[in-house]
């Protein structure tokens, strides 16, 4: 699926760049692209994909933390735990990174 999307995007960009139909055709393409992006179904699909990627990232972080966490030195483990819990970890000098 990713390769198809990449191909279609590349083809569309190539067509726009290589189009010799003039400014009017370019404006039509831009308008069609904006309509596509603003389509509620497309926006819902994009949000769904973003949510799934966030969920996968959390699962991956949990897995890595569970497998590697006990082997980490305590200061580094505390930083990882703080980042995972949404807090900004302290830097090596004990001050906040924010």
Describe the model:
This is YtxH domain-containing protein. The chain has a domain of 30 residues. 74% of the residues lie in helices and 0% in strands.
Quick synopsis:
This is YtxH domain-containing protein. By secondary structure, the protein is mainly alpha-helical.
Can you tell me the overall shape? elongated
Strand content: under 5%
Task: List the uncertain runs.
Answer: 89-98
- Number of separate helices: 4
Computed structural class: mainly alpha
Order of helices and strands: HHHH
| Relative helix content | over 70%
Largest sheet: none
CA-CA gap between termini: 38 Å
How big is the Rg?
A: 22 Å
| Average predicted local confidence, pLDDT | 77
Count the beta strands: 0
Descriptors for this entry?
mainly alpha; 98 residues; disordered C terminus
Topology record:
Elements lengths: L1 H17 L4 H16 L1 H29 L5 H11 L14
């Amino acid at each position: 699926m990713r390769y198809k999307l990449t191909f279609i995007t590349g083809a569309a960009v190539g067509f726009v760049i290589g189009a010799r139909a003039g400014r009017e055709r370019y404006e039509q393409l831009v308008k069609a692209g904006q309509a596509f992006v603003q389509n509620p179904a497309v926006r819902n699909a994009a949000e769904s994909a973003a949510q799934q990627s966030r969920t996968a990232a959390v699962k991956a972080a949990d897995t890595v933390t569970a497998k590697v966490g006990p082997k980490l030195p305590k200061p580094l483990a505390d930083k990882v735990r703080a980042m995972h819990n949404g807090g900004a970890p302290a830097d090596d000098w004990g001050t906040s990174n924010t």
